[in-house]
Design goal:
This protein is mostly helical and 110 residues long. It has 5 helices and 2 strands; from the N terminus they run ααααββα.
Length: 110
Amino acid sequence: MTTATDDELWSAIGDPTRRRLLDLLLESPARTATALSDRLPVTRQAVSKHLGVLDRVGLVEATEVGREKRYRVDQAQLERAAAQLQAAGEAWDARLRRIKKIAEAIERQP
């Protein structure tokens, strides 16, 4: 994944409605935009736009069944996103440990 793709991915995940869509699709895969909109306080058209964003970054895949599109989470892409988030969290934990050590050393100085 490139940095540009990562930025798009995290921008997509940053929206609370899109995160809720991912949660709903993880609970029950292969839902339509209409079925998803029934569970959210937004219109079906808004859900479709959010799903389009998630599709562009690879977090969901659409399968056409008759006249409907059914969406499901792309597990591999979601796992990549989770791994990136974990790595970022570990990097920040390491930075905070270093800051704490520096602060403790400064406190010990007479």
